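Dear all,

This email documents one entry for the complex benchmark we are building for the journal club exercise. For each entry we list the sequence lines for every component of the assembly. Then comes the predicted three-dimensional structure of the complex as a token string, followed by one or two observations. Please use this as the template for your own entries, and keep the labels exactly as they appear.
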Amino acid sequence: MDLFSVIFYVFAVITLGAAGIVVFSRNIVHSAFALLFAFFGVAGIYVLLMADFLAITQLMIYVGGILVLLIFGVMLTQRQIAVDIKTGTIQTIPALIIVSALAGTLVGMFWVTVWRTSGIPPVEPTASKIGELLLTTYLLPFEVASVVLLVALIGAAMIARREKKA
Amino acid sequence: MFDIHYSSLTAVQTYFRNIWLALYTALIGMRLTWRHLFTPAVTIQYPDVKLKLPERARNRLYVNIDDCIGCDQCSMACPVDCITIETIKGTPDQDLGTTSTGNKKRLHVPVFDIDIAKCCYCGLCVYPCPTECIVMTDVYEFSEFDRRNLNYHYSAMTPAEIAVAKEKLRKYDEEQAAKKAAAAAAAPKPPAPAATATPPPKPETPPN
Amino acid sequence: MEELGKTILKLIPVIGDQLADISVLVFVIGAAPPLIFILLYALVTLYTEMKVSAHIQDRVAYMYTGYHGILQPVADILKLIQKEDTVPDSADKTLFRLAPYLVFIGTYAGFAVIPFSSAYMGSNINLGVFYLIAASSIVVIGLLMSGWASNNKWSLLGAMRSAAQLVSYEVPTALAVLVAVMITGSLNLNEVSKFQDGGIQNWILFGGPMPITQKLLLLPFTFITFLILFLAGMAEVNRTPFDLPEAESELVQGFNTEYSGMKFAIFYLAEYANMFLVSAVATSLFLGGWSSPFGSFMSGPVWGVFWFVMKGMFFVFVQIWMRWTLPRLRVDQLMYTSWKVMTPFLFVCIFAVGLILVL
């Protein structure tokens, strides 16, 4: 048990604990805020895997973008500030069966798979390598993704800017 | 520079003009505040340095009780009812003296309280006073730790004097009542006006 | 059960050994200077802000606590520590307590990549500025959390405004950072500062250490970019003229309306720390960071700290100066400035700088 393992477990506990709150919390706002810690824990694990670019992108996109949007949504859809939206439990038995089947499959796969690690040491400055690859080998997917985002932006602008009826 | 006729500009020109104006005017403002950063302060360090108040400053009330004739007009004029006056009629055998303005005093003033905590410093009590005995002074520092201490008692009469005055009035009233009864028994005439002076009729509140 | 107990017992000395390990100590000691700096700096800035605001309005501010009231910030902090730490009855207690710390953590995390001198920065990671922009997004969540948990309409409105503002202004900030990064070719703020070492003429604000023609071509664009970076940074810190989230005349105190005592102090500390963070980023990217403006004269690791703090504090002063000069923007003006002025200007700058660098 070295320092890295300790840190790994700390992050793992943060991630899983927060994810537990997300799922089990009765208060939807608490769930939304607990996501922050889940994302943060995952980012921490990315850092431990020497994927610093990925970790920061995780923070930037999930925390800075998606989570803010999500919390905005949750806050604005509540009819009143004082009343909490409660998440209820329905269909317990079928859900239990499906979930346990899924969990069993996942655990089984985890058990059966032979985990191989490549002997190549991690690349130190990841950002420049990723940048180069995005603009050479993976240029097309990169551009397609940006075009899709542009379309989404234009669509959002079109919907938001409805002309006033004279 | 600022009176631009926007109608004569295209949208693009307006856009750049606005940005330029925003920056330029912000800089003008910042130049102004920069200058003021080095201008001497206009404020004074109050408890250490005090400004001289104007001669007619309206601050704490003062009552010169020797001149008070107990007419109650100041109390009537007060919009917040902070003046409490109680009076005892003087009997004809007593000489209560005259005020410095020459009015004859006919009433004892056992209670003349001003709750200065309620006072709103409007000065309305000052104008009706026929003897000019209630005035506003330039004293403005009279904070107290207990609010009750702000209820100022101006009456100079001691409890013993008050008791004497009350006793005299009671005896006089009894005498008068006896006289009146005797007169009524003698002749059914309309009653004579009382000998004691009632306060003069209230004038309207003077224009402020 | 016994097995588990043994494992835990086995674990403890291992962690203990690790804590005694020099590497952990280095982490702890390495993380401390920014915190100490923030605390001292907050005291100084508190005093500066009060004095500057007073003198701009031809007043004198506090004069009695020590010489010209120099001890007043200490008194203020002492007062805040002693004040009752109230939590409203109808507030969401957990989130209410958590929010100020989250805001401060987001700010403090940003300090990890600030090079105070050529010899010291918290974490020498390659992705410096990128990390900083990501870390500041935690602040948004903290503000939203405080606004929500207070269960107060002003707090919530303030938090909403603040989040909208931060998300909008992250775009110009990131784009402006990109310009400097394009010129230096590194995201690490220490590398960026090193790139500009060697005197005032090498600062990226003045075109960077390029051949003279390229420098002159770059100069207008870097100048505009720096201006936008600084203004967008001010907007991210919620300072006047961009202080809509805590607009006193409209929202009482915005997201921290319900906070008192130490929690309020932490919000305050975070705001002041953020002011320096913005100035530090602008300084590192465009004004040479820790490098001396006189070339090799007065340069070195220790002088580096001096220059860095001086430059940072100058821009903190400019922020205070602007705060007490300019009125608050309207919400639509705020969004207009971000999306219709700063962003297009920066696109032009990025394009132009890229073109000049390629040629």
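Observations: Confidence is low (pLDDT under 50) at residues 12-16 of chain C. Chain C touches chain A through 36 residues (CB under 8 Å).
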